[in-house]
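Quick one: co-fold with adenosine-5'-triphosphate.
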Amino acid sequence: MAPLLEISSLRAYYGATEALHGLSFSIAQGGITTLLGANGAGKTTTLRAISGLVRREGSIVFDGRPIDKMATEDITRLGVAHVPEGRGTFVGLSVEENLKIASYGRRDKSGVRRDLDLVFTYFPRLKERIAQQAGTLSGGEQQMLAISRALMLGPRLMLLDEPSFGLAPLIVQEIFQIMRRINEEAGVSMLLVEQNAALALNLAENAYVLETGTVVMAGPSAELKNDEGIRKSYLGY
Amino acid sequence: MEQLIQQIASGLASGAIYALVALALVMIFTATDHLNFAQGEMAMFSTYICWQFIQWGFPFWPALGFTILFSFLLGVAIERVILRPLHNASVLSIVVVFIGLLAIFHSLAGGIWSHTIKNFPSPFPNVTFAGSGYIGAHQIGMILVSLLMLFALFAFFRFTPLGLAMRAAAQNPVSARLVGVKVDWMLALGWGLAAAVGAVAGAMVAPVVYLEPNMMASILLYGFAGALVGGISNPAGAVFGGFLVGVLENLVAYFGNLTEKTFGIYIVGNGEKLTVALIIVITILTLKPAGLFGRTTVRRV
Ligand SMILES: Nc1ncnc2c1ncn2[C@@H]1O[C@H](COP(=O)(O)OP(=O)(O)OP(=O)(O)O)[C@@H](O)[C@H]1O
Ligand SMILES: [Mg+2]
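Sure, here it is.
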């Protein structure tokens, strides 16, 4: 089967500075892939380049369509949902409005209703807080909201940037379980960026390791988990 | 007493205009963090357009309708053509552009329609209401039209998808793009709406202050003050601030005249009301820098 996302020789820039130096990797249909790497390796930049939030060069093909010249809004509408670093909550809008705004671009109104129900089964807490101003949610709830907002776009692929960041272990577990369910039940493929490598390698089938803007290692998670270098640098044993 | 009520009533009438101008300023500010100094001159220019339509024989309300449409398109065009290329420009260059716009509309209006003062018709019947005597029909009309406009705008922002998209784009442009909102267009729309609101303010106040290229200068200041007092990031607060400033300025004049009559001492009068109103504004801002209702969005990290 052709990959859902295929990236080759991807370069990305902040002003004149090149932050990605020719990345190539691909994501299979239906699966979860993780992108590991130390601080500043270029993980966030890779996700931003896919979404068109930074200037980029090279080829990005999503579901057979080149998206490397497209605007962020159009990429989103094609089915790529980016859950950004820091969650990107609309703090002054209500929880309901945060969810609603993601569904406006969709034509399939029955799909919107189904996804909203799905959100509330996954995260009943959001239903309780539906009228609350989103900025007053706890960090964990805001992360749930960010994932739910992405789900309301009706995506084929989710880009998740450190969903565990700053959260208590129990909440992280809860969120990762839901991510697996979203992947299995809603059929959403995922590209997961994580600092917590152990967690990420458990969830994802495949992994890529980034170092200063280039891919230095790739393979099935099971293999990488046993790699000595990975164990030392990312798993800490 | 009767005079006091009358002063408050006419304060509310001019306050309605300040509220509209304040709202126009806030709409652009929340979306871009810039204060559009040219807002007043754009409104003045729109008022001339309305006057022109009326001269051509259109009745007042259709003329105002065309003017609103024209102003909306003009606002959109200004954002798309002039401000779009400056998205990453420094604050200073944006300020210069605003001042440039101000000068352009000012001389354009003077050039096309001359600087002589013109009468601008009121759409409301020329009566003072029986038994009241406090407030003229035009003042009541001004308040009603402004309230209608404010109500329509709040409903638009609160209840329509487009209104929600505009609020989202103003709050967090990156997240807005990530949920498919065309942020560029939301900014342009915001400019269009602000210009349309300004046009209504201009056409409502022109029968009172007469039509001339300087007509909006002090009104912009009052609107600006109202926006700051209410909270520049809070539309409802800005509207309230506009009304407050309108009432304040009239009360200043009223109590000034009263002290002069009672004690024979002249402290303040009509001439100083702008100054005193601004002093009050500055005092409020010193005590509450974010304005009375300035949004300190609750945020947990
Ligand atoms: N807005 C920016 N302007 C300039 N340089 C940037 C910007 N954002 C990131 N960079 C640089 O690009 C490189 C990659 O950063 P990126 O944020 O992609 O790293 P990361 O892998 O996500 O790191 P972290 O784990 O800390 O989130 C770094 O060298 C960083 O300094
Ligand atoms: Mg990062």
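If it helps, Residues A 14, 17, 19, 37, 39-45, 195 surround adenosine-5'-triphosphate (ligand 1) (CB under 6 Å).
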